[in-house]
Amino acid sequence: MDQVLDELRRGIMRQQSPFAAGVFSLQGDRLSLECNTVKSSSKPSRHGEINAIDQACRSIGKPNLSGYVLVSSAEPCPMCTATAANANVDAIVFGASRQTVAEAGYQTLQLGCVEMIRLTGQSISVIGGVQSDRCAQALLDNPHP
Ligand SMILES: Nc1nc2[nH]cnc2c(=O)[nH]1
């Protein structure tokens, strides 16, 4: 999560929204580390998690991340959770909750990551609240304009 928070700060310095994510092996080796690029790309789908999943798949040359974990600074939205499930990640780890994302003024679809994974029927572990104070602070310090 430390690396993800560093990437979030790099994104803020590039005038991006305060979200970042990475894909790591179960041993902790990094496959990708990306920030949200919705603003610079004008594409609503360019969440940090989508960028990290895309880059991770590109780096291994296949759209399958089984054996890998998605780590995100904030609770993945349904779009990102579905993409992680499509890529067969083993687990999703996140920091700030969707309630904090909403509190900072960013749009959130009120379907939680755990509920979304349950709907997929896949057995993907979800661990929320990791370094949640630091992740929440990064959002609240950089609210939606
Ligand atoms: N988790 C997450 N929530 C968001 N809400 C708006 N953008 C993002 C993003 O990149 N990640």
UniProtKB/TrEMBL annotation:
CMP/dCMP-type deaminase domain mapped to chain residues: 1-109
| UniProt cross-references to Pfam families, sorted A to Z | dCMP_cyt_deam_1 (PF00383)
EC numbers on record:
3.5.4.3
What CDD domains does the record tag this protein with?
A: nucleoside_deaminase
Q: Which GO terms describe its molecular function?
A: guanine deaminase activity
> Does Transferase appear among the keywords?
no
Q: Which InterPro entries match?
A: CMP_dCMP_dom, Cytidine_deaminase-like
Uppermost EC category: hydrolase
Asked if the keyword Hydrolase belongs to this entry, the reply reads yes
UniProt keywords (A-Z) are: Hydrolase
**Record protein name field:** Guanine deaminase
Question: From which organism does this entry originate?
Answer: Neorhodopirellula pilleata
**By which gene is this protein encoded?**
guaD
